[in-house]
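Task card 7
Instruction: Convert sequence to structure tokens.
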Amino acid sequence: MMDLIIYNATIYTVDEKFTTAESAVIKNGKFVATASNDDIMGKYNAISTIDMEGRFVYPGLIDTHCHFYGYGNSLINADLVGTRSFGEIKEIIRKHNKDFPSEWILGCGWDQNLWPVQEFPHKSSLDSIFPGKPVLLTRIDGHAAIANSEALRRAGIDSETTVEGGEFIKENGELTGVLIDNAISTVRQHVPSPEYQEKVAALLNAQKNCFSVGLTSVGDAGLEKDMIILMNSLQKSGDLKMRIYAMINPTRENFETFMHKGIYKTDHMNVRSVKLFADGALGSRGARMLEEYSDDPGNYGLLVETPQYLERIARRAWEYGYQVNTHCIGDSAVRLILDIYGNILGGNNNRRWRVEHAQTVHPDDFKLFGRHSVIPSVQTTHAISDMKWAIHRIGPERIKGSYAYKDLLEQNGWLPNGSDFPVEHINPLYGFYAGVARKGLDGYPGGGFQMENALTREQALKAMTIWAAKAAFEEDEKGSIEPGKFADFIVTDEDLMQMDIDRVPKLKIHSTYSSGKRVYTRE
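Output:
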């Protein structure tokens, strides 16, 4: 006796032949078979059956690169995404401080590129409204922040303070409060840590929202030991059903707890990779470029770690059989990491080391992904978020090698896609749309942005299902609807693969299933 049969559906199995079926059978949380309604009903009996009434079924969606806990934690901070001026930000944090009083005022999501004057803010604007309360507001990409004077005072930072791999922006020798990359942590480390119940609430709130947009698995890019242990305990208790590919931060504690003991794997937790940073972000001009920024002569961006450090950690990962996933935005950072990887990997291999973002690649370097079997792990929504201002940062020639998803896919024949949320929205269908239509949610530009690098719908779906699973060495257990794999799937009222592409961002998930159990249904 089977546990569940779903029927009267169009099921996109995303198997090797990208076949469709009408019905699927589930037992013990895994798929047993897919076929026509008549074949399944004639062969199997089940405790429960669900008539899908002509709806469409896909494998559970996977975000290969996000910050799952960070997103959950951000839900209690001031939301600054989409703000159109610093004046608007001030009003938001005033209200947030009134509604949610706390020792520090924290917020995230601002982007000066959306403001009338596209310049970094100054701490004086924060000092005028919060002279004695610390404020730390992080930019949308997480690679810049603005701190007020009280926050800098508590962190012991003055105009003489320096930090490797970061920058304290100054004007006329005085701190502006803007922090770039590693400078942010010098302030953030003084923010009180959330209590245990706050951490649990953050994880469960993140899970609830992710299930509602069809995500059943995530790759959390950069975690500490205690958080992985907490996630694992909540998974074992059944409270946290989200499957998590945990990339460890390169700390001694993480190495001793995880890497040096080998791969840790359960049905819901997978620890077998280390997350590194090569450079910063393009929006804050911290991405390391081979040539100077077009809109900031003399500035080449920065490396947040030394090449020697990056290679040392990569060699340690090689020794212990761990995957290396390195953040690279600028073409210089991409080249550096491809060279380091190449020296260690030595050609064709199955280590699946990843370049996270691979945002700007020099034309000479694309071939190195294929030569060393290095996987570009991309976020298609970044292209749409950046397209209006990125050309000013790097100019018309370098932009041709940026957000080049089709070119990157061709290097190894597959390409995993994520969102980097909360940098971007959690909805993976936005990434599907950005990859295929190359447009923003407002439909701009009408003809699409650099359409020569658009993905097909089949490629876009694979990038957030089977290819995403493969990027985490999990293609044998999820990412497609096939016998023996976890029964993680989503249901929609319209056909993602056939509907008007410009309507895809508005498509709502009807229901989400994990291990054959419904974890979300649209009210």
